[in-house]
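FORM 12-B: Structure-to-Sequence Request
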């Protein structure tokens, strides 16, 4: 009877220690896996506006401005309404970011008061808003609208 109580207590204690003392690398991997607004790396993405692919300085400038953006909120997308977010009526040409290694695409729509980002991974669509003063006022965002 005593072993039936002691063994589960020891197992739960060991599980608690493992979960609360994870290495930094593991914690960072878990955070990156589930974050909505992930940081971009210039070597992993291609950036296009309309038919024009951004290269070198323009691409680096856009990626830095995008990474500095502050996450505001995530938008709930009702099933069947994905196309309303992927192709909104009131926006101009989106800035399209495609990842080279993964099957992810980001569509960036610039407005005066916010930046809307729509992340498409296979058939799953996630939409959220950012604030980035430098990106909202940059010439790249103005070119896209």
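FORM 12-B RESPONSE
SEQUENCE OUT:
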């Amino acid at each position: 009877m005593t072993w039936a109580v002691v063994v589960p207590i020891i197992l739960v204690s060991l599980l608690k220690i493992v979960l609360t003392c994870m290495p930094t690398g593991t914690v960072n991997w878990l955070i990156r896996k589930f974050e909505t607004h992930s940081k971009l790396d210039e070597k992993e993405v291609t950036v296009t506006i309309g038919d024009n692919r951004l290269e070198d300085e323009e691409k680096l400038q856009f990626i830095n401005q995008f990474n500095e953006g502050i996450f505001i909120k995530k938008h709930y997308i009702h099933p069947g309404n994905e196309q309303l977010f992927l192709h909104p009526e009131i926006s101009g040409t989106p800035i399209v970011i495609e990842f080279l290694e993964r099957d992810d695409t980001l569509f960036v729509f610039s407005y005066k008061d916010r930046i809307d980002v729509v992340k498409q991974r296979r058939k799953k669509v996630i939409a959220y808003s950012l604030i980035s003063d430098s990106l909202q006022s940059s010439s790249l965002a103005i070119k896209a609208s």
